[in-house]
Amino acid sequence: MKRVTLFVAVVCLTASLANANLLINGDFNDPATGDPPTGWSVWAWGDGWANHENNAPVTYDGSYYFVAGAPNNGGGGINQIVAATAGTEYQLTVLSGADAWWQPHGAMTMFFLDSSDVQVGLATRQTVDPAVYGWTYDQPHPWESYTLTAIAPANTAKIKVEFDANWNTGSTWFENADLTVVPEPGTAALVALGSALLIGYRSRRNKARA
C-alpha cells in the first residue's frame, strides 16, 4: 500500500505542476494601489490608457484589475515574459469585459520568442467580441472567461503574454490571467489512474473502520 500511496503522491505532484500558473501576479492584485501591477510591463499610445483600477461598479470580485482603451485613436496593454519550452502546449485564460461605449474589444496574445527575443510564432484571439454580444453601440459586455491554447513552435524559449485594447472606443477590462502547461495524454491518464487508486484506497479504509 505504501507503493500505491507514493505513486498517487507523485501523480498529484505532476498534476499540480502542470496546473500551476506560470504568470506572476496574474490576478493583478499586487500592489493594492493604482500603481502598475507587479511583474507586468504596461504601455499606452496615442490617446489611449492602461490603468490598474478597483472600481466598485466594474470589479469582478472586489479586487484590482487591469483596464486599457482609448476614445478613438490609441490604445494600451500589458505584458509579461516567462520561460517556455518548444513543443509544449500552453493554455492562456483570462476574464475580460468592457464598458458600455462604442463596441470596445480586447485581445489576448501569446508571442513565442527564441532565446534572443526574436518572435518565432504567435497565437491570438479577441476578447469581448462584438460578434457575440452584438454590434449595438453603448452595450455593456459582462465579465466572461476567454481561453487560448497553442503549441510552442520550434526554437521557443519564452512566451510573452499580452492583453491589449488597440484602436478602441471605450475601456476593456482584464482579470485573473492564468498561463498553464496542458498535460500530455499520458500524464492525464496517470492523473486519472492516481485519482481512482486514491478513491479506492479511501473507500477500503472507510469500510475497514466501519
Describe the structure.
The chain has 210 residues and is of the alpha+beta class. It has two domains: 1-19 and 183-210; 23-181, Sandwich (Jelly Rolls). The chain has three helices and ten strands. It has helices at 2-18, 130-133, 185-209; strands at residues 41-46, 49-53, 65-70, 74-83, 89-98, 106-113, 119-127, 141-151, 158-166, 170-181. The strands form two sheets. It has a five-stranded antiparallel β-sheet with strand order 1-4-9-6-7, with no helix packed on it. A hairpin with a 5-residue loop joins β6 and β7. α1 packs across α3. It starts with a helix and ends with a helix. Mean pLDDT is 85; it is low at 2-15 and 187-199.
Summarize the structure.
The protein has 210 residues and is an alpha+beta fold.
Find the structural class using helix and strand composition: alpha+beta
CATH class designation of the largest domain:
Mainly Beta
Helix count from the secondary structure assignment: 3
Q: What is the strand arrangement across the widest sheet? A: 1-4-9-6-7
CATH topology of the largest domain: Jelly Rolls
Q: Give the tally of β-strands.
A: 10
* Cα Rg: 21 Å
Strand content: 35-45%
- H/E series, N to C? HEEEEEEEHEEEH
CATH architecture of the largest domain, by name, is Sandwich
The helix fraction, in percent, is 10-25%
* Major sheet attributes: 5 strands, antiparallel
- Broad shape: globular
Unreliable residue runs: 2-15, 187-199
Q: Kindly state the mean pLDDT as a whole number?
A: 85
